[in-house]
Amino acid sequence: MCPMPVRDPRPVRQVIDEEGLAAAIGLKHVAGVLYTYRCTLACAHCCFNCCPDRPDRHTPHDDALEHLRQMHAIDRVVHIAGGEAMMHWEALRRLCREAGDQGVAPHFIETNATFASSLDIARERLTELRGYGVEGLLISSDPYHQAMCPPAHYGHCLEAARELFGERNVIAGAPSKAVADENAAIARDPARLADFTRRNPPLLSGRAGDDLYSMFPEKPLDQLVDAMWHGGEGVAHCAQEFRPETVWEVHIDLHGNILTCCGIILGHTREISLPDLMAQGFLGRSVIVDAVYHTGPIGLLTLAERHGYTPRSGYPQKCGLCWQVRRYLRPLYPDAIGPAEIYEEPKVRP
User: Which residue among 98, 223, 240, 291 is buried most deeply as judged by most CB within 10 Å?
Assistant: First the structure.
């Protein structure tokens, strides 16, 4: 059984200065503005079910500024993610400019690099972001991303990011364009992609919970003590992801939902601020959070059975069980399981 991860006691500013942004993420954990559920890609493993056919909207400007203020108050590494936030470049640059003026710029932006059609474009945008106080970049790369994003775009983005932010402030899914090229080659070969998926199991939630679920053998419920996103091996419960001091990642989306675990709502900004929620804790706010804290997805399964759900004989993964049961329970608990973008397919599938 793995111990609960302990966040570094140093202030986040000190950790970033001394260790670099990439290391600080693991040491301090993160808080992110989920700026949009729309994306240039529709990756098979996407936990948030993002794709190009999601509504063309993002977090309103004033809300996003307030979310960044609140995130800086909880001593975590702060980022803007999606979806693909770079799709809304004019709004994003204005947000980062004003956030920088107020001392609450995100520490990094998360991107799939599709915007970087040339090295000049990558340098131009990242130079502007750096000028507003953004300190680094997370660039996604794997066979799922490179199935649709040209490796050349990834290479441009990686080169510009390392040049402008420094290597220790860039979190790169692939260490080089050559590795991104190999990811693209894997994506083009169904047999190799299937082998990659089985050897590197994604969290079976979101699109992965629907499209990749059948690639893995089902296991009895008493064997579902595998790791969550960032640890938690050896236990059936999910307490680690529902304690403010150990939760790896908290998000605030464009609707004001405060989320963890890609689709479990901890609260809403119209009712409570993120710092107050972190101070008060997450328990007692919903039957969903209480269930997964104490007994994990098995608790959700028990709740679903009371509402008529017929369980499978087994499930391939703890997170896979959670996703399947959450999908069933969402109409009954929409304030705790959401938002719709994560659980429902767009009208037109890409």
Answer: 291
